[in-house]
Design brief:
The chain is of the alpha/beta class and 243 residues long. Strand 3, helix 2 and strand 4 form a beta-alpha-beta unit. Helices cover 24% and strands 16% of the residues. It has 5 helices and 7 strands; from the N terminus they run βαββαβαβββαα. The protein has a 5-stranded mixed β-sheet with strand order 4-3-5-7-6, sandwiched between helices. A two-stranded antiparallel sheet has the order 1-2. The longest helix has 15 residues, at 75-89. The protein has helices at 44-48, 75-89, 110-120, 179-191, 228-241; strands at residues 30-31, 54-55, 62-71, 94-103, 131-136, 152-154, 167-171. Helix 2 (75-89) packs across helix 4 (179-191).
């Protein structure tokens, strides 16, 4: 989930850094079990990824097929967001390959929009697609204390693993440079295992410097760059599960 303006404290985990060292060029990501969660179930416990699931140990290149649902948004706006997203994903060896579908969904509730996206495709992502992202012109909301202070919502951390959980939604925010692209890149980052608590001040090293990297919890302070730790998770999930 990405908030619009308010900053939450996120502490990066120094552990796992050693896993980013060089390894044979064709080595698969390290995959850790989910513990009590049923294997390949998309169960809530799996979707927390309290234990990092897939961790990249190489820079193997991969194609990520993203279906973008245009809910009151023009395709030109979506293509601009993809161009922004590629600034963060290209450096990880992930080639973003978009396709587009126009929809008309009801209501601003983020969870409800994800459910409508699933129903649109019969309950799971369409064939040949890794993740589905709804780009909406609505001012989306979420249950609980966040209310309308939410810019996007992923259905599942690591949702690319599960055909029924590989969905995310984000609005088209104004007032933030490359805001639509940052929102989409952030929420799809969650679907690829990226976590708020792996964020760091590495955003200061980005071409668009900001206090935090792309997976920070607030749109107003993030940059189009993954932290080292989030890079390991995002690359690992893409290498293991992108089809």
């Amino acid at each position: 989930m990405l908030r619009r303006m308010h900053l939450l404290v996120a502490v990066p985990l120094a552990v796992l850094l050693a896993l980013g060292t060089a390894a044979p060029s064709q080595a698969d990501p390290i995959v850790l079990p989910d513990g009590l969660a049923p294997i390949d179930s998309g169960h809530l416990l799996s979707c927390t990824e309290l234990v990092p699931h897939a961790i990249a140990i190489t820079n193997k290149r991969v194609r990520l097929d993203v279906r973008i649902l245009l809910d009151g948004v023009g395709e030109a706006k979506a293509r601009g967001a993809v161009a922004s997203m590629r600034k963060a994903y290209g450096s990880l060896g992930i080639r973003v390959a978009p396709s587009y579908d126009k929809v008309h969904f009801r209501g601003p509730d983020a969870g409800g929009l994800n459910r409508q996206a699933k129903r649109h495709y019969g309950g799971k992502r369409p064939g040949g697609t890794d993740v589905v992202y709804t780009m909406t012109s609505k001012n989306i909301t979420a249950a609980g204390p966040l209310g309308d202070d939410v810019a996007g919502l992923a259905d599942c951390i690591g949702g690319v693993r599960f055909p029924r959980r590989a969905f995310a939604v984000g609005e088209v925010p104004g007032g933030v440079k490359e805001g639509p692209g940052k929102t989409m890149a952030h929420e799809i980052g969650h679907l690829l295992g990226g976590h708020h608590h792996y964020t760091s001040p590495e955003g200061l090293l980005a071409a668009d410097p900001g206090p935090l990297d792309l997976m920070g919890p607030s749109l107003s302070v993030i940059s189009l760059r993954f932290s080292t730790l989030n890079s390991l998770m995002v690359k690992g999930h893409a290498q293991k599960y992108a089809r």
